[in-house]
Amino acid sequence: MEFNPEKYRHRHPCRVRFHHVDRLNVVHSLRYFYFFEEARFEYIRTMGFPVDDGIFVTHDKFFIVRNTCDYYAPAVFDEQLTILTRIAYVKKSSICFEHVALKENGTPAARAEHVFVHVDINTDLPARVPEHLRASIRSFEGENVEFIES
């Protein structure tokens, strides 16, 4: 897997616990999605957005429309992972998060993409990603994010 770690402005540590591994002592494939979700919330917090009890009902509303994950090298019990997170692109109504789980030796264990669609809070229909979010993403990610308007 080729990737540029310099494109990822956010890093989140994650220790592999007993309940994360299967009988072969490797992280179960589903657990990576939990690691990535935790890192995504910390990314949002780092950007300065409120992560509070009203996040799902009073702020901008998004639905996950795609989750993908590729696995490269097994992570094992008590291993320290670092989850790299970035927003790769923003389209008219969607935002794509990328994550890479790095093993202690710098080898990628897994890479994921999660696409979220911004929806109107009343109709649940796709709506343009608001300008305040676009500006915050641009400010945080700099040149590492692509804005696609087609």
CATH names the topology as: Thiol Ester Dehydrase, Chain A
Proportion of residues in β-strands: 25-35%
N-to-C span: 29 Å
Briefly, what CATH class?
Alpha Beta
Query: Into which percent range does the helicity of residues fall?
Result: 10-25%
Shape summary: globular
Largest sheet: 6 strands, mixed
- SSE string, helices as H and strands as E: EHEEEEHE
User: CATH H level: which superfamily?
Assistant: Hotdog Thioesterase
Q: What does this entry look like structurally?
A:
With 150 residues, this protein is α+β, with helices and mostly antiparallel strands. The protein has a single domain (5-147), classed as Thiol Ester Dehydrase, Chain A, CATH 3.10.129. It is 18% helix and 34% strand. Strands 1, 2, 3, 4, 5 and 6 form a 6-stranded mixed β-sheet that branches. A hairpin with a 5-residue loop joins strand 4 (94-102) and strand 5. The radius of gyration is 16 Å and the shape is globular. The mean pLDDT is 93.
